[in-house]
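ok posting inputs for the guanosine-5'-monophosphate job
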Amino acid sequence: MSGEEAKVFVITGPSGVGKGTLIKMLRERVPDLALSVSATTRQPREGEEDGVDYHFLTEDQFQERIAAKDFLEFASYSGNHYGTLNSELDRCLAKGRSVVLEIEVQGATQVRAARPDSVQIFIAPPDPAVLRERLTGRGTDSAEAIDKRLKVAEQELGAQDDFDHRVVNDDLEAAANELESIVRSSVGGS
Ligand code: 5GP
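and the output
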């Protein structure tokens, strides 16, 4: 298998916009898509598993991986580090599988430079006010952490025009359809 048709999809957008839910729906519809498991120094949330949701690293371990040039991209977000390991991508692409990265905007910009052939998709809220509602409703972050995330979200929303595709997550089903059609046409068109 040459792997030449395998694509890298970068899905980004502010915290609380519904990236995780949309990616879950996308992978149910396009089961052959692999998901890259990121590394982070953030503490695991309840129910999160090491190696499944993230590779949870200490600050020292993360710095060692930076020094070893193990990351395709990495960024600081809301007081923690997050990064995509080259090994995650290689593992999927070597099998000819397209892979999805769910990352924040600074990382997406780095991937665009490193892999200009990646397909970049920005998920936008219908109205920035829904981000606070969703983050509060999710119940996974403290009020202080939510405020930090919303500050970052303002900057992230300012970068949305830099992306190849923009999907507004107003109606979940409609957004999932749009995402699926972007992915199918990119893979089919390669
Ligand atoms: P959370 O703490 O909510 O899991 O993630 C916080 C932010 O970091 C989200 O916007 C998420 O998409 C992003 N993120 C997750 N993994 C990575 C990664 O590997 N690299 C980058 N740059 N951002 C990531």
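notes: The first strand starts at residue 8 and ends at 12. The chain has a mean pLDDT of 94.
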